């Protein structure tokens, strides 16, 4: 099963993917870089190295999707889960062609993913920063909810002001599951795992 992680720049997608993989038991990852024609180059790195490389204040650090493959023990039928980290989708039209292209191909992946996990930075609701929830989040939601299993992960609940943000977000995205999480402290990871397992059958 492929779970696509999508959202605005700096909302915590990369930190979520790596810490969630670690929560699911992974210590070293094959960091598969997927090119636009879906060719994959494989590298093995520790989760700590991956974090140093991929988690950043700089937006659009990861243009190509990164896939993390996990095998989850389940008696005689181990489950295979791929979590795909993607480039941030920003508001408006980005001035760099490569970034625009990466965003377009990320959006195109929504239709083929088995599940979409849409991260928002719930601590920035009402702010003007690039990671603040905005119109592009509503567009992603409108599209993704039609296509299959979809949830919003309200990230950075460890930060001040996030509790209000979660209830506002639930109000705004009625009918869509909103799971409060912290990619940093791993709060809410149990709920995300339960959701994924429910869809994996
Ligand atoms: N306090 C806090 N910071 C976070 C959390 N998730 C991500 N960050 C920080 O937000 C910044 C952007 O994270 P990153 O994973 O690179 O975001 P991405 O652009 O969506 O992949 C980094 O400085 C992270 O350390 C969180 O849950 N809590
Ligand atoms: Mg990233």
Topology overview:
Elements lengths: L1 E6 L5 H11 L4 E3 L1 E3 L5 E2 L2 E3 H8 L11 E7 L6 E7 L11 H13 L5 E7 L13 H13 L2 E6 L6 H11 L5 E3 L8 H12 L1
Parallel strand pairs: 1-7, 1-8, 8-9, 9-10
Antiparallel strand pairs: 2-5, 3-4, 3-6, 6-7
Helix pairs in contact: 1-2
The structure holds guanosine-5'-diphosphate and magnesium ion (MG).
Guanosine-5'-diphosphate binds next to helix 1.
Describe it for me?
There is one protein chain. This protein has 201 residues and is α/β, with parallel strands linked by helices. The protein has a single domain (2-200), classed as P-loop containing nucleotide triphosphate hydrolases (Rossmann fold). It has 6 helices and 10 strands. The protein has helices at residues 13-23, 47-54, 97-109, 135-147, 162-172, 189-200, and strands spanning 2-7, 28-30, 32-34, 40-41, 44-46, 66-72, 79-85, 115-121, 150-155, 178-180. Helix 1 runs antiparallel to helix 2 (47-54). It is globular, with a radius of gyration of 16 Å. The termini are close together. Guanosine-5'-diphosphate is lined by residues 7, 9-15, 55-57, 88, 155-156, 158-159, 182-184.
Question: Which descriptors would you attach to this protein?
Answer:
201 residues, alpha/beta, Rossmann fold, eight-stranded mixed sheet, two-stranded antiparallel sheet, 6 helices, 23% strand, binds guanosine-5'-diphosphate, binds magnesium ion, P-loop_NTPase
């Amino acid at each position: 099963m492929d779970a696509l992680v999508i959202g605005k720049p700096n909302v915590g997608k990369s930190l979520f993917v790596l810490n969630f993989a670690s929560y699911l038991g992974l210590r070293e990852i094959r960091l598969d870089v997927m090119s636009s024609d879906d060719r994959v180059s494989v590298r093995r790195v520790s989760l700590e190295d991956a974090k140093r490389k991929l988690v950043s204040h700089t937006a659009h650090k990861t243009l190509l999707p990164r896939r993390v493959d996990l095998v989850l023990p389940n008696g005689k039928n181990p489950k295979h889960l791929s979590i795909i980290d993607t480039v941030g989708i920003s508001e408006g039209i980005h001035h760099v062609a490569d970034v625009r292209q990466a965003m377009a191909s990320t959006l195109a992946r929504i239709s083929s993913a088995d599940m979409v996990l849409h991260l928002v930075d719930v601590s920035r609701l009402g702010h003007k920063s690039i990671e603040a929830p905005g119109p592009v989040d509503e567009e992603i939601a409108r599209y993704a909810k039609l296509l299959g299993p979809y949830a919003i992960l309200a990230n950075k609940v460890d930060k001040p002001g996030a509790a209000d943000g979660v209830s506002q977000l639930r109000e705004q995205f009625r009918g869509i599951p909103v799971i409060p999480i912290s990619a940093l402290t791993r709060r809410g990871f149990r709920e995300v795992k339960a959701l994924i397992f429910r869809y994996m059958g």
